[in-house]
Amino acid sequence: MKKIGLFAIIYLALMPVAFGASVVASVNGKPITDADITARTTLMNKQGKTSTDNRRHALQNIIDDSVKLAYAANFNAVPDDRVVEEELKKMNLGDLSATERAMATDALRAEIAWQIIVARTILPTVDITESDIRAMRTEIATDQGLPIEMTIVRLIDIPADVAAKLTKPTSCDDAMDMARRLGGAPQKFTAIQYELATDIRERVVNLPLLTWSPVVDRSVLLVCDTKKTDEYGKLDEVIEQNAKFKQAMFIADQQLKQLRRKAVVVINDDRYKL
Length: 274
Hints:
- The protein is 57% helix and 14% strand.
- By secondary structure, the chain is α+β, with helices and mostly antiparallel strands.
- It has a three-stranded antiparallel beta sheet. The chain has a three-stranded antiparallel beta sheet with strand order 4-3-5, sandwiched between helices.
- A hairpin with a 2-residue loop joins strand 1 and strand 2.
- Helix 2 packs across helix 5 and helix 3 crosses helix 5.
- It starts with a helix and ends in a 7-residue tail after the last strand.
């Protein structure tokens, strides 16, 4: 009886480790507990990353962190504690429990390691074409505007039949004279593209020079001239870097999916089936 009683005591003492920890999954043999997921969810909330399915997302992030770190170890790209601690301080996450802090450290270490991998192994292989740069430049121009000075002629309250009589002018002055001959009162102004109102910018970004725009809200626009400002040269460099980074991150995401498929991931709890 004493032996049985002793066994029962040992069994009960081990229960918090074996069962209380509630191992819901493992990746390459490393357990992931329900407490880990709770800590990661809290961390995500503090970073403003909320969703109705945060716990499943948290588990996926923990799995990805493990996969990233295992891969980065092959390239000696895992940052040391000092680097991680410095970056963690910059995040200003406030008070964290021991579990939350450990989770934040793991997540940050994996993110830094993955950035190193991208910089070392992917970015050098990315080739950006002029068409890629043009596409990104157009995207920025439409959404935010570029540092390009634009001289624009605008006609407002113009009837459709009058707009139909507008032909391609030879110059800005010709456009102004044409509008006046048709009874209009043209407005001429010069502005940096990013200073234009969104609706105006969207209409003129891809408008060929000296070409009247379609009528919108009884108004037409014409771009007489454009001039790149001093900022533009630096912007092209930034655009090229951003285009390379965007392409590199796409490749990295595909690579992570491949690594995730090769990892041994076991989900023990149906609530977390991915």
